[in-house]
Amino acid sequence: MDASNVPYVALTMGDPAGVGPEVIAGVLAAPETASLQARLIVVGDSQRLERAFKLIGETLPIVRCESIEEAKQSSVSEDGSRVVACWNPSTSDLSQVQDGTIDAQCGAAAYDWLVAATEAAKSGIIDGIVTAPLSKAALHLAGHHYPGHTEILAERCGVTDFAMMLYLPQGEIVRSEFGLGVAHVTLHTSIASVPGLLSQSAVSEKIELIHRFLKRIGAETPRIGVCALNPHGGEGGLFGNEENEIIAPAVEESRKKGIDANGPFPADTLLQRAVAGRFDGVVAMYHDQGHIALKLIGFQKAVNVTLGLPIVRTSPSHGTAYDIAWTNQVDSGGMKEALRVALQLIQTRDSA
Questions:
Q1: Whose CB among 20, 31, 107, 335 lies 3.0–4.6 Å from 14's, allowing a Cys bridge?
Q2: 18 and 151 within one domain
């Protein structure tokens, strides 16, 4: 790849009291990262990053940058040796933060880093972002009342039609040639609120979003299965009418648009069939309906992709893991996989 076409990807640090700095350090120190056709920029706190490198027994030179433009220039050294460009656009004071705790300063910093990276991606300065986990509680303590990354990204990008999708690549577990994506109609909300949030338009929008994603990665005619909300698919209305009144009409609407959508099917059997290769994508009605299944079979391989954005954004599927943060027990596999998927999506932008 010509040097002028090498993509720039920002790695946002997430909550600095959690595992974010460690998983980023693990990615940057990995031997395979040196051969990637990409230039990586850390958006976060350089002192936390330096400490994370020491924790995992690695030493990479960190270049502290005052702007994203300077970080791009500093992401590769003149002699070709490995360096880490780190840009901190936040003024939050992290000096008194205790590891593994919920802290308003961490929430403020994580928000600042995410917003700055998002704006850089929107303006085309960088090509995509991979986000380390943040704490929703810390965000709220800092006065940022969002349920998570997805909603912040949607607001900053000015989109209303978006979805959280977990994606597992094809392999020993997932048999579909194109991997398996599971998009969610509702996100970070209570189970009690889910039925009232479902609508035919919301379900059909998510079907279309995952359809477009799968076509982008090479599926000519994506096969999409749609989950029922209620056990046994509602048992003909005995356990609820959402299937007949909302989900089935959304599936039919999508089929009229030429999308190979099927359902609603009971979630327990649908997800098993999808993993076995019957479907390329699944639309789940709520967060845990999709998350539990994919995390159970591929926790370190599952990647969170935000659908519907004008930018590329991925993240690992795990959270801040305060219980093991800063103890050198963290596996960076999820962050590595998120970076791999981000680079795949950057390469296929023209087909989006």
A1: 20
A2: yes
